[in-house]
Design a protein that fits this description.
binds coenzyme A
Length: 274
């Protein structure tokens, strides 16, 4: 991992890689350099054997104040070639990479989460917020629309009327409201945020990695398929999983339930073998 990176910090602990947006003095507003560094960092961690789960968070108590209005917008306005390159990196890490990431991903949100930061928030598999986190689709107040892919991912993910309401009004809302509208999975008092996020990461790490990967990617892929395409895709993905799972999870699960009687799936994952 490249320790020369300025705008991204990585901490590894017990299988979890914490990826911190690291411009705390700018509330982690996303500059061109941050986008390039995040893109490289996530690509590296995706194949890093020590990394079982990635948690995306913001250093200094704020998730992210969105795109950097000075460096990302004004700074690139007169530089179309640079703007294209940076926009590609920005959309790649915040959506393309994270959406189909080979490992489970969680956003941990405290403090401000604004505008463009909704993209990585919704691209990660799960999101946990502090009750008092402050969310805002603030674009309407800047004279711009929720661009990049923000309008699309919000419309696809949160309860529709609420998405429309917050996009059109730009009003701030807290972590409890974010959960009510489907933007985050749950919120907790701020002092429990790290502990509850780690708890979720540990539950994910107890699952078979191959089965978890296939499950999350299948859930995402079927969203844009019709029922026949989905049935066909899922049948093939199931076969591919059985053939390639190093833990032989299917055989292991059945044998622990039917033969050894050592496991019931409602209550716990099977014990990984192999
Ligand atoms: N782009 C560029 N700079 C930003 C920024 C952004 N999105 N968000 C914060 N900053 C900068 C501030 O300009 C300030 O820089 P300075 O110290 O050089 O003056 C620094 O970060 C600290 O922010 P400040 O506004 O002083 O902190 P605050 O606690 O009073 O307010 C926010 C925090 C997040 C409420 C406020 O900064 C804000 O509204 N930011 C814009 C958020 C937004 O709408 N983002 C979406 C962009 S599409």
């Amino acid at each position: 991992m490249d320790s020369a990176r300025q705008c991204v910090k990585v901490e590894k602990e017990d299988g979890i890689s914490w990826v911190w947006l690291n411009r705390p003095e700018k509330k982690n507003a996303m500059s061109p350099q941050l986008h390039l560094e995040m893109d490289e960092t996530l690509a590296e961690l995706e194949t890093d054997p020590e990394t079982k789960v990635v948690i995306v968070a913001g250093a200094g108590g704020n998730f992210s104040a969105g795109q950097d209005l000075k460096e990302y917008f004004r700074g690139l306005d007169q530089n179309p070639a640079g703007a294209k390159r940076i926009r590609e990196a920005s959309n790649r890490w915040r959506w393309g990479r994270l959406y189909m990431y080979d490992k489970p991903t969680i956003s941990m949100v405290e403090g401000y989460c604004a505008g463009g930061a909704f993209t990585q928030l919704l691209a990660t598999d799960f999101a946990v917020a502090a009750d008092d986190a402050v969310f805002s689709l603030s674009e309407v107040n800047w004279g711009i629309i929720p661009g990049g892919v923000v309008a699309k991912v919000v419309a696809d993910s949160v309860l529709y009327r609420h998405g429309l309401y917050y996009a059109c009004l730009g009003e701030a809302f807290d972590g409890k409201e974010a959960t009510r509208i489907g933007l985050t999975n749950f919120s907790v008092p701020k002092e429990q945020l790290r502990e509850k996020t780690v708890e979720l990461a540990k539950k994910l790490m107890a699952k078979s990695p191959a089965v978890l990967r296939a499950t999350k990617q299948a859930m995402r892929m079927v969203r844009t398929m019709d029922i026949q395409q989905a049935g066909d895709y899922l049948a093939n993905r199931s076969l591919a999983l059985k053939a390639s799972d190093p833990n032989k999870s299917y055989e292991t699960g059945l044998s622990q339930f039917l033969d050894k009687k050592s496991f019931k799936p409602f209550f716990e994952p099977f014990k990984k073998e192999g």
